[in-house]
Design brief:
By secondary structure, the protein is mainly α. It has one domain (2-163). 73% of the residues lie in helices and 0% in strands. It has helices spanning 2-38, 47-68, 76-81, 84-116, 129-132, 134-155. The N and C termini lie close together (10 Å).
Length: 169
């Protein structure tokens, strides 16, 4: 379990670094685009497609952070109505459904990436597959976090944001 925790810490650092870097880049790019368009009257042609690709990476790589912090969406009104011991079982069941969904979705998305790889965007010289690529990557990263979180939950350890960055857990 300590090995899995170490893997999750590394994955979390990677996800955090990628999302932070892309959000900084997006902030600069959008500010530059607004100034370029409204002050100098010369719009940046590639800004829209670059923003789409970057946001795709931010969303799907960033989703693993929510799984690491155990803050993803689920039916909390049901779990809150249950006794404490049943809450953990219910959350594990919900996570099992999410786990199956992520495995199937990651597998099916690979064919979409393969189909999109040969084509390129019109304004930026990158493959359209780059837009779809973060989905299976984020799914795999999220799967590690789901397993780690549920092993902790079932062993009685604290899970969630309060220990997400503590490698000693």
């Amino acid at each position: 379990m300590k090995t899995l925790e170490k893997i999750c810490v590394v994955l979390d650092k990677i996800a955090s670094a990628v999302t932070i870097a892309l959000l900084v880049f997006l902030t600069i790019l959008i500010a530059y685009s607004v100034i370029s368009r409204f002050v100098f009257n010369t719009p940046v042609a590639w800004q829209y497609e670059a923003t789409l690709v970057c946001l795709s990476w931010v969303v799907f790589i960033g989703m693993s952070i929510t799984f690491r912090n155990d803050e993803h969406m689920r039916l909390t009104f049901v779990s809150n109505a249950l006794p404490k011991k049943m809450q953990n079982i219910w959350l594990c069941i919900m996570d099992a459904f999410v786990f199956v969904f992520l495995v199937v979705a990651a597998y099916l998305s690979i064919s979409i990436i393969k189909n999109a790889m040969p084509t390129q965007y019109q304004t930026i010289p990158v493959s359209r597959g780059l837009f779809y690529m973060p989905f299976p990557i984020g799914c795999v990263m999220s799967l590690f976090h789901i397993v780690n979180t549920n092993l902790k939950r079932l062993s009685g350890q604290t899970v969630g944001a309060e220990n997400a960055n503590d490698p000693k857990v």
